[in-house]
Amino acid sequence: MAKSKVAILRTSPATVLQDYHRLMNLADYQNVLPKDVDTALKINISWHFFYPGSSTTPWQLEGVIRAMKKDGYNTDLIHACHNRTVVIDAHLGERENKQINVINAHGLKNVHLYEGEEWIHIRDAVG
């Protein structure tokens, strides 16, 4: 297995969206994330109020989605995913933290992992 690669960039409000593309490619994400499979973007929502460092920022989500689209990833295979949290309803959090605006703007499937999705045990999936 290849070693993980970490990339760090200094950014600014004027360049942050383009910098996500650059950052992801510095980390060689395309070498480990095939374009022909479903990809879950796990969105972190800690509170309905925005707390930097504890929730996925709209510009982080926007930058990642734009980078993937620019690099040829199909948005039909990119999904925004949320888990249940103990401190906030994920539907309220995604609205108040402005993540749903980004998801809808790109036409991504928005999946709340605890709602209406059939779960199977990993052993049943891979043996």
Describe the protein in words.
34% of the residues lie in helices and 10% in strands. With 127 residues, the protein is α/β, with parallel strands linked by helices. It has one domain (37-126). It has a three-stranded parallel sheet with strand order 1-2-3, covered by helices on one side. Helix 1 (16-26) crosses helix 2 (58-70). The longest helix has 13 residues, at 58-70. The model has no long low-confidence stretch (mean pLDDT 90).
Largest sheet: 3 strands, parallel
Cα-atom radius of gyration: 16 Å
Which spans have pLDDT < 50 for at least 5 consecutive residues? Answer: none
Mean pLDDT: 90
Strand content: 5-15%
- Helical coverage, percent range: 25-40%
How many domains? The number is 1
The largest sheet has its strands arranged as 1-2-3
Q: Give the overall shape, derived from the CA principal axes.
A: globular
Q: Give the distance, in angstroms, between the N- and C-terminal Cα atoms.
A: 21 Å
Structural class: alpha/beta
Helical run tally:
5
List the defining traits of the structure above.
3-stranded parallel beta sheet, 127 residues, 5 helices, alpha/beta
What's the structural blueprint in terms of helices and strands?
Elements: H1 16-26, E1 39-42, H2 58-70, E2 78-82, H3 90-96, H4 99-105, E3 109-112, H5 122-126
Parallel strand pairs: 1-2, 2-3
Helix pairs in contact: 1-2
In short:
This protein is an alpha/beta fold and 127 residues long. It has helices spanning 16-26, 58-70, 90-96, 99-105, 122-126; strands spanning 39-42, 78-82, 109-112.
